[in-house]
Amino acid sequence: MRYGDPIPDHVMERFETEMKIIGPMGFSSYFLVVADICKYARDNGIPVGPGRGSATGSIVAYATRITELCPLEHGLLFERFLNPERINPPDVDLDFDDRQRERMVRYVTEKYGDEYTAMVNTFGRIKAKNAIKDSSRILGFPFSHGERIVKALPRTSRARPSPCRASGTPSTPGTARLAKSGRCTRTNLM
Questions:
Q1: Chain-centre distance for alpha carbon 155
Q2: Which domain holds residue 96?
């Protein structure tokens, strides 16, 4: 048990408050499934992250070992994670060792069924200089190595696009001068 026996009153109060929201919103089974996935990973030597995002504000997630951060110790709010005024399903961000991804997918698919299993990906954008610095760091090179490569890149223009409208109508008196000068072109129209 995470909080000992007997469970302190303030912990039970928080737990009951959360369950009064989780249960009526129909998310009890979601918590059980996510807890099962985390348990399988830990029981099989697959590293699992401690939890991140708003899920760390849930004492239920902590008690079921979905997360490893006690929300009471860190002053985290459950309402940021699940709120009856915002009918959004809970979103628990789980981080597993990439090298064990296939094992986790196989477990979930076999236990819960292919028709109930989906892969979700998130894609982000990173600028060239940051990508080079990150790649250098990840590959184990000294910081100075990435910096040296970045400094060898050609300088890029940091000019902002002109605030002209797509219709060609200047949006301000200043852009009227740009439009008349011919510098407000299709490539920098907003």
A1: 32
A2: 9-116
Give tens-digit pLDDT for 24-80.
999 999 999 999 999 999 999 999 999 888 999 999 999 999 999 999 999 999 998
Beta-carbon contacts of 60 under 8 Å, excluding residues fewer than 6 positions away, are: 15, 18, 19, 22, 31
Q: Is the CB of residue 87 less than 8 Å from the CB of residue 25?
A: yes
CA–CA separation, 146 vs 131, rounded Å? 10
Q: Are residues 23 and 56 in the same domain?
A: yes
Q: Please check whether residue 121 lies inside any domain of the structure.
A: no
Q: What is the pTM of this model?
A: 0.65
Number of domains in the chain: 3
Pick from 37-46, 103-112, 130-139: least confident: 130-139
Tell me which residue of 89, 83, 51, 84 sits closest to 70, measured CA to CA: 51
Please check whether residue 1 lies inside any domain of the structure.
no
Give the sign of the dihedral formed by CA 136, CA 137, CA 138, CA 139.
positive
